[in-house]
Amino acid sequence: QVRLVESGGGVVQAGGSLRLSCAASASTVSLGVMGWFRQAPGKEREFVAAIRRSGGIYYADSVKGRFTMSRANDKNTASLQMNSLKPEDTAVYYCAADNYDSLWYSTREYDYWGQGTQVTVSS
Q1: Which phi and psi angles does 98 have, rounded to 5°?
Q2: Which helix (H) or strand (E) holds 71?
């Protein structure tokens, strides 16, 4: 069992930046994938970014070029650097992880979830 805790959310103006962090309670070396998802009010939870054990990094089209995900297995953490934020990025952001990685883009893949952190981008 892996416990995930997110931090770094907040309120920012459009065009600004935020950095989200995810701390794991156990070693992340063996995790197949770590990812970030987000959920806006009234919408389904959607994929944002993921890093597989192999090192492959994937982004949703809506954030490509603006968001950067990193993973530090020596610190058991993952981060999401968010630049050029837009009002439509407003959501609760969740860190997630799983021992496998075949469906890295799907919420169905992930067994471990954080409690979420709110990101609000004002126009």
Answers
A1: -155, 160
A2: strand 67-72
CA proximity to 6, closest of 77, 106, 109: 77
CA–CA separation, 93 and 117 (whole Å): 5
Cβ atoms within 10 Å, residue 71: 22
**Cα–Cα distance, 50 to 43 (Å, whole number):** 20
Give per-10-residue mean pLDDT for the chain (123 aa).
Answer: 95 98 92 96 97 94 98 94 98 96 90 97 96
- d(CA 37, CA 95) in angstroms, rounded, equals 7
For 54: left if phi > 0, alpha if psi spans -120 to 50, otherwise beta; the answer is: alpha
Q: What local confidence, expressed as pLDDT, does residue 47 receive? A: 98
Query: How many residues in the chain?
Result: 123
